[in-house]
Structure formats: structure tokens, C-alpha cells
Amino acid sequence: MFIRRLPKFEYYAPATIQEALQFLSQNRVQCKVLAGGTDLLVSMKNRATTPAHVVNLKGIGELRSIDYDARQGLRVGSLATIGDIERSQVIREKFTPLWDAADVMAAPQVRNLGTIGGNLCSAIPSADTAPPLIAMGASVRILGSRGERFLPVEELFKGPGESVLEPDEILMEVLIPNPPEQSAGAYFKLMRRNAMDLALVGVAVFLRLNKDKSRCEEARIGLGAVAPTPIRAVGAERVLAGKEVNEECAQSAGETASREARPITDVRATAEYRRTMVGVLTKRATLEAFKRIR
Ligand SMILES: Cc1cc2nc3c(=O)[nH]c(=O)nc-3n(C[C@H](O)[C@H](O)[C@H](O)COP(=O)(O)OP(=O)(O)OC[C@H]3O[C@@H](n4cnc5c(N)ncnc54)[C@H](O)[C@@H]3O)c2cc1C
Question: Do 174 and 148 touch, CB atoms closer than 8 A?
């Protein structure tokens, strides 16, 4: 059997964030941070990335916690695995679109290694955690040798496989505000098969209704795999805001979202098919979010 070997590199396993940041600032461009390795090691074996130093964050325990506070919301450490998310009761109950994404990602083996931080920092347009996080208004905390900064998740991505992180920065945690009353969301993923496949299209919709649940007060929609980065479908959000949520309105939001998408044709699907399916999934996710609130 043909086995791909990793290229040679120096391995560093810091015990604290300070040690990791110091090493990254001294070595900058020759370094790559390692979390679960499910993207990085594949890319190194393919020689798409050949870092001189690999900095393994897994020894820094504080990065793996998932903490919920009714006032401040949810903090998910960047090293929390997709499996940790899937097993979290509070995420399943209160931050359901993220749970939906964890539930349909890869397979259990990959979910037990791959992390939320790695999924976002790999910046692939089809990263499953991105659309739900965008729809739920999440932000990320980033720490570097020059200090700390916060960014909304949708601003983390620069292009396919490229994030705005500097080589000496670490994504520390993902912060998701506590969902308000009368709100819920859903993430729908289209794949060629039911497991172990990247999204052809991913759509997350988050709705907040008025007090008597008759009208949508606010909508947020995240799209994946249909543009160079995960994006927000602001036009479709406007279609839903202030309206009664029904088939017709969800259909119209879907049509707007499909016009906002900028998909490409590749080996997995044509641009035209992806665009059509953005409409279908936006409608389905809208109606599912509505159903979950009611
Ligand atoms: C068989 C298979 C199936 C897959 N299926 C899916 C799927 O269905 N959906 C999906 O979205 N993805 C999928 N993936 C991709 C991958 O598993 C996920 O993106 C995973 O979440 C990556 O996390 P990781 O911890 O393994 O990242 P790593 O491989 O460790 O890192 C990925 C990138 O992020 C950087 N990085 C990691 N953590 C940090 C941090 N805290 N701060 C700064 N930079 C950081 C690394 O330097 C690297 O560039 C699949 C991969 C495989 C191998």
C-alpha cells in the first residue's frame, strides 16, 4: 500500500499559552499550529503545507472547555472537539444550529479529533461550524504577541483556505451570545452521501419572533460552500424581518439567498445546482427554525 509520509519538521509542545505565543512570535512564518491535525496533517502529507515548526496546542488544557452562563452566553474553547460539541447538552438545547452542524460533520473518528478552532482557522468555504456560528452572531477571541482582538466569525475569513489570523496569533475561543426569548435556528447541509462528506451547500437560519410568535423580528442567515468564504445572506434576512413566517415568505427568502450566493462549479457540483439548493435549504431551515420556536 502507498503510504504518504510527513515532511520533516521540528515539533514543539508548549504547556501554556504564553509559551506558545512566544515561540510563534520568534518563528512566525515557518510555524503552523496543530490542533486535531485532521486538516493540517493531510495538507502536510500532500506537501501543500511544509512548515519548519509544528506547535501542538493540545497540551494547553484551558483551551478545551465549554462554559455556559445565562447572562454571557456560551464560550467554546478553540480546542473543543466537534465530538465535545455533539455531546454537550447545553449546545444541543440552546445553540441547536451548532449542534446540527456537529452532528452531520465527517464521522465519529474525525469528530473526536477535529476541533472547532481548526474548522474555522482552516477557512475552507464548506467548514460546517461557520454558517451556524454566523447565524447565531458568534465572535472569536484571538490572542497574539501584540495583544488581543475580537472579530465576528464572518470577518475571520479572507478567501478559500485563508483566514485573517497573523502567523503568530492563536484563536482562543468562540463566543456565542445567549439566544433571546422566542428564538431558535437550524443548520441544513447538502452532501452527496449521508456521512463523511463536505457540504455542497450549508445553510443556517436563526430567527427571533415577536412576543406572540406571529412575526419575525430578526433573522440571521449563514451560507457555506457557495462563495470563496462562508458568508451572511443579508438580503434574505431583510426579506424575513418584520414578516409572518410562512411557506411563501420562506420561499422568497430562499430565492433572495440564492441570488446572494456566489458558487463555483467544481468536481462535486455545478454552480447552478448549488445556487438552486441554497434556495431550497434556506426555505427548509427557515421553516424548521420557526417550528422549533413554536
Ligand atoms: C475524512 C475527513 C472528513 C472531514 N469532513 C468534514 C466535514 O464534514 N465538514 C467539515 O467542515 N470539515 C471536515 N473535515 C475537515 C476537518 O476535519 C475539520 O475542518 C476539523 O474541524 C479541523 O480541525 P483540526 O483540529 O483537526 O484542525 P488542524 O488540522 O489541527 O488545523 C487546521 C488549520 O487551522 C490552524 N489552527 C488550528 N487551530 C488553531 C488555533 N486555535 N489558532 C490558530 N490556528 C489554528 C492550523 O494551523 C491549520 O492551518 C474532514 C476531514 C477529514 C480528514
Answer: no
